[in-house]
Every structure is written in structure tokens, then in C-alpha cells.
Amino acid sequence: MASVIQPPPQKTRRSRETSSPHSATVLPSKPKPTAFSNPTAADRRRWDNVSVWAIGWLAIAHVVVLAAPFTFTWAGLGVALLLHWITGSLGICLGYHRLLTHSGMKTYPWVRYLFATVGTLAGEGSPLDWVADHRKHHAHSDQEGDPHSPHDGGWWSHVFWLAFHTHDGDRKAYLQRWVPDLYKQRGMRILDVLFLPLHLATGVALFAVGYGFGGLTLGTSLLVWGMFVRLVAVLHATWMVNSASHLWGYKNYETTDDSRNNWLVAIVAYGEGWHNNHHAYPRMAKHGHKWWEFDITWQAIRFLRATGLVWDVVDYRTASEKKATKPS
């Protein structure tokens, strides 16, 4: 489900490794698939397809988190929890996923860009990359070409898939294939460029606010907890949708993939863990279909609908409507 910023492809040296069963996971260079092909995990694990930017970004975030025990404050924890909900639930689950990817509702352009910007601050890549990868996931879920299926390994689906480009060297063609609607929007392309600057500005702002109210100690705490602890927590919560929700849980619907409803993922990922429901009806903005399947992101959508900020929300209220509407 998650993606990470992917810069324009660069020329790299070919590896001299062999492809024996005992060689490294990363395979030798081979002809690159096109944006319209369905490369397997093995196809993508090439030295010339390694995403240095993604590895560096994720590595830095996880290394900084090691300072969390030494920079703890209650204010830092509070800011981290608040921003976790804002960027995780409102930014990723509502903005990136249910609004941009699946068009589960309609809204004003400024609301659309607001949620896209908040989603960008979750650290999972620009709207273009994230939505492209997720749409391809739905098109090939747990089949050849799925960017992150547990069929290729649990840890692959959770995180390792991010170490390799999904566009296989032609990012523009990949985006034009999977997100033509977003790619033609200048604002979305601007957010693509602003991914790192927005995070740098957020880090500076958190430190400045903390420093202003409590000196160096509070400034450092807000930076580490509000920025990096929160970011890593949101990343792993989202990644659990890709991994755990395709491995463990129950099904309400028979689908062509291994999607499951997982209550733990539903808690940490703000309703996204009702994943089998979602794969059965991708455009449905409400992911919890049983009375006990609580979906906090859906509650935010209900509030937005009540205030008139979103409308035409896709919500198949009855079983008959669900049966009459084919999954897209």
C-alpha cells in the first residue's frame, strides 16, 4: 500500500553476480520490463533497479527513532499521536487511498489538495507514486505483477519491495499508465517535487515550536517524536495492510486474492484492516461492513459529508445494492 519518493532513473553499473540459488537476493541486471508489463518480484530485484533514495529515506527515519527513549516528553508523545492520526488516517487512509486512488467521494479542489498534502507528510511518497502502486496492486492483487504480494515473502510485502523501483526505469510512462488523471494535474506534480522540502519544513517547524516553549530539550523531543517516531509508526501501520492483511484474518467475501479482515490492522491503520471488504468493493468509502467492524476513517468521512465538504460518497448501504454493484 505504501510508496516512497522515486527520483528519475540514473545509470548504474551492471552487477557481476551470478543467479545461482546461493547468490545474494539482488539479481544481476537484465532487460528492463516496460511500464505496461507485470514484472515479478524476481524481475525487480536487480542492482540497476535499487531505489537508493527510498532506502536512504527509510534508513534515516529508523535510525533517528533510536533516540526516542532519550528524548521522551509527554508533549512529544502527544504531538506524535496527534500527527499520527492526521497524517495516517486523514492523509493516507482518507486522502491518498479512498479519495485519490478509488474516487470514493467527490470534493472541492482545495479539499482534495489539502488531503493530498497531508498525505505527503506521512512520508510514504508523493501522491503520484503511492496511488500508482496501489492501483497496480488492485489490478494484480496476489498475482504476477503485484508490487507487494506476500506470495513473494512476508517481509517483501511489508517493506523490502520498497527497496526497488516499481517503475523499472521509466517512471513517467509508469505514472501515465496508472495515474493519468493525477499526472495531468499540475498541483499533483508540484507535490511530487515538494516531498522532501515539505518534510524538512515540518521538522524545522516542530523543533522551532518546541524550542520556543521549552528550549532545546522540548525542541529535540518534538522533532524526534513528532517527526520520526510518528513517521515510522505510520509507515509500519500502512505496511501491515500489505502484509498482515493478506496473511491473517477472516473473509466476508470471496475474492480472487488473499485479502483478509484483520482487527489489529484495523486499529493501527484506522479502518484499513477491513481489507477483504475493501478488495471486494474497492470504491466503497466505508471499509467496515459488519456492525463490529469499526472504521474511524469512515467517521471522518461522515463528518465531512455532514459539513458539505464531500459528497456523492460511495456507500452501498444494503446487501441488495452490494449484489447489484460489481466490484471495480
Any overview of this molecule?
The chain crosses the membrane at residues 50-68, 74-96, 193-216, 222-241. It comes from Novipirellula artificiosorum. By secondary structure, this protein is mainly α. The chain has a domain at 41-251. Helices cover 53% and strands 1% of the residues. The protein has 14 helices and two strands, in the order αααβααααααααααβα. It has helices at 41-44, 52-65, 74-101, 109-120, 127-139, 154-158, 171-178, 180-183, 186-193, 195-242, 263-268, 275-280, 296-306, 319-324, and strands at 106-107, 310-311. Strands 1-2 form a two-stranded antiparallel sheet. Helix 3 (74-101) packs across helix 5, helix 3 (74-101) crosses helix 10 and helix 5 packs across helix 7. The longest helix has 48 residues, at 195-242. It is globular, with a radius of gyration of 20 Å. Residues 5-31 have low confidence and may be disordered.
Our Rg estimate from Cα atoms comes to 20 Å
Average pLDDT reading: 89
The main sheet comes to: 2 strands, antiparallel
Strand order of the largest sheet: 1-2
Q: Quote the beta fraction.
A: under 5%
Measured between the Cα atoms of the first and last residue, the distance is: 18 Å
Number of distinct beta strands: 2
- Unreliable stretches (pLDDT < 50, length at least 5) are 5-31
Structural class: mainly alpha
Taken in chain order, the helices and strands follow as HHHEHHHHHHHHHHEH
Multimerization state: single chain
Keywords: Fatty acid biosynthesis, Fatty acid metabolism, Iron, Lipid biosynthesis, Lipid metabolism, Membrane, Oxidoreductase, Transmembrane, Transmembrane helix
GO molecular function: oxidoreductase activity, acting on paired donors, with oxidation of a pair of donors resulting in the reduction of molecular oxygen to two molecules of water
GO biological process, one term: fatty acid biosynthetic process
Family: Belongs to the fatty acid desaturase type 2 family.
